Amino acid sequence: MKPRNTLLSVLFVTSALSTQVFAQNFDVVILNGRVMDPETGFDQVANVGINNGWITKITGETIEGAETIDATGHVVAPGFIDLEQHGLSPFGIKLNLRDGVTTQMDFEVGALNISEWYAERENNTQANFGTVVGQEFARMRVHDGLALDGPNVSMPYFFDYRIDAAEDGVDGWSVTRSTLDQMNEITATLDEGLREGALGVGSTIGYAREGITTYEMFEAQKIAAKYGRLTAAHHRFHPSASTPIETATGANELLTNAMVLGASLQLHHTNDYGWWEIEEKMQLARAQGHNVWSTWYPWTAGSGNYGASILAPDNWEDSMGYKYEETIFDPQLDRYVTKEEFLEFKDSEPGRTAIAFSPPREQWIKDWIKVPNFVVSGDGMPGLNEKGERLDWDSPFEDYAGHPRSAGSHAILLRLARENDVPLMFSLSQLSYWAAKQLGDAGIQAMDVRGRMQEGMIADITIFDPENVTENATYSKGKNGLPSTGIPYVLVHGTIVVSDSKVLKGVNPGEAIRYPVEEVGRFEPSNKEQWLRTFTIDTGGARPTLYDDILDDQSSLELPQSSEPVDYRVAKVDLTKAEPQDWFAQPNAMDDSELFLCRVHGVYEDKVTAQQDWAQALIARNSQASPYDPLSVTGTTGN
């Protein structure tokens, strides 16, 4: 029998070896940081152990690992999540990593050829990545005839495609209203992207407000809803302060569709006139169980291109009341432009970057940093220099010429929150948790394990100095792309990508955020017969149109005799110029899906003659029976 002290010595050595093995059982450890979890409210100085890309230990005990980060005096937070990053080139990704963004996705412009898009980036990207299928690209195929092949039909090549679309002098994707067949073709393209794993449907309807009909937009949201996926959109009237096209009107359209479909919705950059109304409705809708939310970025100016309709004089001057020489800044010229210069660039270089200031944001920003579920997304633009050339990974940050939101949208929020006494945990929710939570609720399972600092979560982690973190990018030339400081370490899936404030080249742990590919799509073409079968009763096949005989006899233009005024229209219509309306689509298209519920419009081979005859008969009839102008009828009961 061994002496007692010998046995204790053996037990001590065994225990020490066991402890040592346990202590070194981590790939990475983060020591002495203030660990903050927005979901649970956990906020303590602790040590974090990471294995195989996952957080496996959060403890006050001593731990060791193969790599060690000393986070003393720093916050250890969930990696920031950005849902509107358009600069997803190696340069743009690097710039966003310096701003603490571990998941960088484009939910606005999106992409086509989804399987190819993901394959191109797999094992080759520094941050987590994902995309929606883009409605604008689908419309470019149909209305501009662009092939749009390959893995890069997405940002940052987006403006090149817009230039190609405009070569014939018409931005078909923006201004052309779809016939029924065209609408079905567009929706089928969206369906194919969803089948291949896209996270939802992305829409730039705000740049195509004259081209995309309300029903086409409804169809886009409907196909996303068939997959249980979200729609994300820059809504139709953003920004506008004029009735009846106020900003909130565009939000209402999308919000109504989402609520009746029981679908998730994200509205992009709700940071202009009417934001308060939209956010009130968002909060009320969430309280009723709807998964809807908005994003914003903390800058006093927005960014787009000279060809954008929202910057045209009828909106920028007439609606918003702004002056070009006070609000439109050109980063390549490093100064504001006159109206004449603006119009010249609009015609000659419609894809050129313009920075548009919105003076009221100076005050609004201080409100936005306090709005629950208001998610921060940078809306970062492609990495270009002052000549419009693309920057690569090795390009100096000073060469970037564009909106500074590409570089500092997350650090600036942390600075603003610090200066305005906003609780840090609230800001972390705006930067990570609420995006992850809402995307998870939309069915994206990969986001259920992100946006949190908890054991069992993926180790996407941003470490920052809460007292000194700040943006450095400004609107001045040479400073547009200066990286944020005070964020010395960033981990993506447990791999250190930013170390001592330097992005490590060639380290590509970014994971694809997507749905599995499905074998069969879910698209069903819309048509009149399908609509009737679904939404009307069966009366033996009778067409619910007053003038069936007109279909067979185009010369029959007699109107029913009545002593009462004939109310046919909802709004004023010049019938001498109007053409038969496609049921789902535009007035100048004709197929077998006419607006059969409207007594004014029929189907004729000779559209112009028949419509003129019809209009004359209608005017004559109403002139006899009505004391008021028949072309300004309101309050109709049947259109």
UniProtKB/TrEMBL annotation:
Keyword Signal tagged: yes
Signal peptide (from-to): 1-23
InterPro entries hit by this protein: D-aminoacylase_insert_dom_sf, Metal-dep_hydrolase_composite, Metal_Hydrolase, Metallo-dep_Hydrolases_sf
Source organism: Aliisedimentitalea scapharcae
The protein, known as: Amidohydrolase family protein
Superkingdom, taxonomy of origin: Bacteria
Keyword set includes Signal: yes
UniProt KW keywords: Plasmid, Signal
